[in-house]
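cache lookup: miss for this entity combination. No prior model stored, computing from scratch. Input as submitted by user K.M.:
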Amino acid sequence: MRRTSLSLGLAALVAVIWTLLPIYWILKTAFIAPVDAVAFPAPLWPSNPHFAAAHNIFGFGYTDADGREFLPAGQSKQVINGLKNSVIVAFFVTVITLLIIVPLSYAFARFEFRGKTALLMTILFSVAVPPVSTLIPFFILFIKLGLTGTTLGLIIINLTITVPFITWMLIGYFRNLPAVEPLARVDGFSRLSTLIFIVIPMARSGIAVAAIVSFLFAWNEFVFATQLVNGTPAATLPTAVSGFLFLQPQPGLLSASLWISIIPAALVAYFLQRHIAEMNLVEPVK
Amino acid sequence: MSGIEITNLRKSFGNVRAIKELTLTIPNGVFCVFLGPSGCGKSTMLNCVAGLEDVTSGTIKIGGHDVTNLPPHARDIAMVFQSSLLYPHLTALQNIRMSLKNSDTDAVEAKRRIDHAVGILEIASVLDKKPSAMSGGQRQRVAMAKAIVRNPTAFLMDEPLAALDAALRQSLRLELVVLQRQLGTTTIFVTHDQVEAMTLGDLIVVMNDGRVEQIGTPDEIYNNPATKFVAGFIGSPPMNFFEGQVEDSNNGPTLRTQYGPIAIPRHLFDRMGGSAHSLGVRPQHIDINRTKTDGSIPGTVFAIENLGKDSVIILHDTAGHDYRVLVDPDHGYTVGESTYMCLDLSQAHLF
Ligand SMILES: Nc1ncnc2c1ncn2[C@@H]1O[C@H](COP(=O)(O)OP(=O)(O)O)[C@@H](O)[C@H]1O
Ligand SMILES: [Mg+2]
């Protein structure tokens, strides 16, 4: 017993260090003066905190204690614009995904109708297709429709991934919920009001997880964004951050922009995380 | 006023005829148990009465009103589902309130009814708990409270005790009977457990394969089974059947079996006539001996079940047929012994 918990603790420690150390390493750079950031050996923590990057990334100038002035560079404007676009895209993708998938996966889980199997297979197929393989066709289509370089186009293309994938995920979840529909009918709920007043509250954990998954997907989506919106006013945060790779190295700014891309995602995951655990604990009926 | 009247009810799912023909009147205030093996159509019948399934043909009246085409909520019924299903995300109190949410009961009246139900079911301590935090017995009581607050003309219950362990089931059974007497509400209770049916029911409806086999009090069903199915289904250990041909000869009616003729009492024969081919004898109405006597039937001890107060000896005949005999635990027989069964024909049934 002691030995298992000891080795379990060790394993957890290794896993935590393995994932968090590189993130910590890059994130600390945001608060280190450019001269210190390139020193060897690099400082383990910002013992001498320096806030130039934190100001510059939001477009503000900064004068440090030694009187040196740091002016915002061009890429930082991109980051702020990318943040705004990413929030818009992730928000609408999440909301639209939920509006579609909740009734859709509920219907698949609970009702029998003609063509159900064929439709399910179609959904499975679109989950199985590697998204990259649809990139070129989408690109051509979007050019013809004038959707390249637009937030709308990006939202649409994100939905083509999130909707089938999360529908597939939620069908199983809805199936495992107790069949309270007859109970609701005896209590006088119509089919629609059963969905709204009974099933959705009952399924809130699964729906919250669906929201996390679609938000994080849209927030992190890079491949489509690179092709469709990079270099346009509709560019999202990941493409803006990647822009630093092609400039003269600015580790402080790169790090600050990573802070911006990680914090909202971490907040969303943090506030909805208890549902991830709950989703797997379908309450026992017996 | 009559409680529930079902007339010529039929229900098909596509080609599956789940209810073939059912006519039944349940008098007001009666506790009626639907008993039958799994898949015989009990739940379908109950769902038709509740309005959860549309009937294929026939009419259903509850409290004198034709409700055949009304939705469940308009039928003045309350239902307790399999395993006492509740909304898993709501507390006991919220679950109970749901029963009145879509009715025009005013707040004062709702509170009075809920307090009353909580009082008689003694569930005040679990009102803030969700179903997953309650015991099986508590869930059952909450489900009953949820049903009671509707003040219905009829309670419909679909195997509410099925998922509980034997001891709890026994005590809840008693509570249910007492509660139903107290409220005097017409009740249909569905079960596949014959012990449950015998202990609960004023009236038992035995169903098989979408049809009613027999309707009667527990006494009538046990002592005068109308069909071979009922005879074999009710009673534990089950009734034994001896197959053969019934003939009326000079020496009185007999059943010709492979072990020779068995004389049949005249009154049995007169009731059934010559169409019978099966003699049913309950395990407690058979004696076994080591020596052959007149009209006895040979059998080899195959297994012995000790029930504590009695033992059941399971005999095989040469064809491998099972026969169960109830004996005192100090019977002294061992597996493999050859014995002879002596039937008490005054207690037998012909089918
Ligand atoms: N929704 C349905 N669709 C098709 N067949 C059904 C449906 N519900 C029940 N049946 C069939 O009707 C018969 C009776 O089922 P049911 O009433 O559930 O039996 P019981 O409750 O006595 O176990 C079974 O053969 C079952 O397969
Ligand atoms: Mg059933």
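stored under new cache key. Residues 34 and 76 of chain B are 20 Å apart (CA to CA).
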